[in-house]
């Protein structure tokens, strides 16, 4: 497959293809690629006129619209480095958003901040950088610059999700980004005739690299919903595949779970999903019940189980690290949760193992890059053989340069902070090492306990979050649930208690919005733990084995 540079599509954009954006009234606005290319050149001219020098960062505080596409490639065209930042979200607290935005801008120190309609009414960010509003005048029929332009050495600064602490700015080279795009394109056997549909935000690595840059640089059609469009009507996303011919997408497991909650089988009447080829699923540990439920819902309309592609990736590796091969059904392993200890062999769950001690894991495939490699290491950094639990270390040409202002990453061995193991060449992910407790040499992950709570019928669709840490010297698990308390509290406490070894258990319930989440939907466990310990989390303690009343 021919290698494609980030800016190659701008040379001769195909007028018959482009990006469609969902309007509030449910219709689609099409922007052909020549129009978007002209807009990118127009943004590049505005940035040069504003004095932006090559190598300087340009902050993109923009939603999932055509302005983002023009801003991203316009920054690259003038040699600057685009840095996408989340725009204000619906129902989000404005003060909290401004604080987070200000903190990111302080790290980034951009030359210019590009904004659009999504930031109207918010006021200018607290920064010395000038603000350019792209919503004021959308360029029409702009010609390309005559001077040839080369892709800058640094192509992107992307922020981590902030699920385990403050979001960090990851510096991605053009070489790493192009390598990851090529790997995803090869993995999906993707060409210009393979449309993508997405609702993922463009400021997040899966939405940006996987669902925007890959189809644009391939020259394929793209259908774009805003995240809030998907929340209100996941059926609109499904119709992209069943009515408009989209074939490729990516979605975290909680997005698939939202489809299962909101879409009734009868609403799918008339949809033909037989051409839907790939759903890349990652971003958090994958619940196999969500995968099987999604397939069961859509199978009557031609959807195939082999279209589900579990994957593993992270911003520090640009995006994708491993994935299940196309047309191969996902694999699962049922293991004994009590035997998961760093450096020790994984033990299959024996018949009769209690449900709360069984853990079913989804395989996330093998390395996608030609030079990609996965190792599992122990506490000392020594490589472990297959089948033993340890920290995931990845290597390859798409490893990012490092965090902004910090030491460079080691491309031969990036320690991810995630725990997992290899089995028959496939990676199985257990959880974040920072969101775990050590108990008699056994590691208990927050994801383990969240899976236990998902087995409580009343909590199945509430997406509770579990926070782990030491409180007053005592190992403590805090389950945070949005909604009213009820009979489920006693069941949740008992199941969590059985999953732990003497740790205290606290259950906190409260209104919608109590669980703080990243822009990609992950629970921000570490900041919530710190808030709980300080008594500022909110909600109310409704049960547990501990005497604390903090919330």
Question: Can you offer a commentary on this structure?
Answer:
It is a single chain. With 551 residues, this protein is an alpha/beta fold. It is built from 12 helices and 28 strands. The strands form 8 sheets. Strands 11-12-13-14-17 form a 5-stranded mixed β-sheet. A 4-stranded mixed β-sheet has the order 2-1-10-9, sandwiched between helices. A 4-stranded parallel β-sheet has the order 4-3-5-6, sandwiched between helices. A hairpin with a 2-residue loop joins strand 23 and strand 24. Helix 1 crosses helix 2 and helix 8 crosses helix 9. The longest helix has 17 residues. The protein starts with 17 loop residues before the first strand and ends in a 7-residue tail after the last strand. The mean pLDDT is 89.
Low-confidence stretches: none
The portion of residues assigned to helices is: 25-40%
By secondary-structure content and strand pairing, the structural class works out as alpha/beta
End-to-end separation: 55 Å
Shape label: globular
Output mean pLDDT: 89
**Rg:** 23 Å
How much of the sequence lies in strands comes to 25-35%
- What is the count of β-strands? 28
User: Helical stretch count?
Assistant: 12
Strand order of the largest sheet: 11-12-13-14-17
Biggest sheet statistics = 5 strands, mixed
